[in-house]
Amino acid sequence: MSNIGLFACCGYLIYNLFKSNSFNNFSLFLKFIKNNILTILVPIPYVVYFLWFMKQKGAAELKSYMVQYWSDTFIPLNSSIFKYLVFTIHGLWTSIFNAFEIWGVFMMLLIVPFFIFYRKQSLFKEEILLLFCVVLVHLILNVFQMYPFSDRLYLYIAPFFILILGSSLNTLSGFAIIKKHFQKINIVISISTLFLYVLYIPSNDNNVCLLYKKLNNLEANQVYVTGKSLETINSFDKFTDNKFTTNKKILLLDTELDKSSYIVSRVSKKLKLNSTSPPESEIQNLIKSNRIKRIDQVNGYDIYEIKNR
Q1: How far apart are the first and last CA of the chain?
Q2: 136, 150, 102, 182: CA torsion to nearest 10
Q3: Whole-angstrom Cα distance, residue 156 to residue 153?
Q4: 271: pLDDT confidence band, cut at 50, 70 and 90?
Q5: pTM for the predicted model, two decimal places
Q6: Exposure string (b/e) for 90-117, b if CB count within 10 Å is 16 or more?
Q7: pLDDT of amino acid 269
Q8: Which of 20, 77, 233, 247 is most buried, with most CB under 10 Å away?
Q9: 16 close to 36: Cβ distance less than 8 angstroms
Q10: C-beta of residue 206 within 8 angstroms of C-beta of residue 232
Q11: C-alpha of 51 from chain center
């Protein structure tokens, strides 16, 4: 059973426990246990295996390593939580609603009416509460640094946000100013979302796979990368569990430029389609001093050759 399945079992039990008010009456609680005994028993083999595994040699070291590895995905219980929330919300709107920033923000804003008029909601209300309990289990484990909360590990909550979006749109359709044109608005939003998804090409802003292939063809043992490049490359390697590799040694860019003939620079997509950000500042300085020239590019990166090395 996957970890998400375990979250679902626990979330389902929490949802039914509160819905039936079984925690207020012992006899009702026993009845709840009897009615949900199979769901309660499902996670037990996993828990027993986990407890056994943690007693094995090297398990404590592995746990320590994994906590450090996923450290930036755990909810910080200090002032940095605000920064964490900003990055997490950004990840949610790009991963779940739309990879294009502006439209992702727009779709995220569309769910706001759900929370403002929550008491008046009727559409999908029970389903949303059930899925909230599942997500709550994940968040509780995350606070105790037992399970990370990152892009590839929270994709399962997409139905949760989609149902909220549907319920929110249903609420908006009840306003007289919107009701008259709601069908047209709904069609425009749906077509625009589908159109943008069609435009989106996987890895269009971080194609490390192709970058590695390009680097492997270079006549060099080492390659410089800028700080931003290194950060996004490491993020990709982490996301793919180092499935893709290069035979070149990666070096952080220095001022001497005496260890390699090539530099990889990060190029970010801008909100405007088919446009990119200007080169990084250190790359701009090297271009101005005529020390490098661009020889190749892939989505998300430029490859430069160092002149007269």
Answers
A1: 56
A2: -30
A3: 7
A4: very low
A5: 0.66
A6: eebbbbbbbbbeebbbbbbebbebbeee
A7: 61
A8: 233
A9: yes
A10: yes
A11: 29
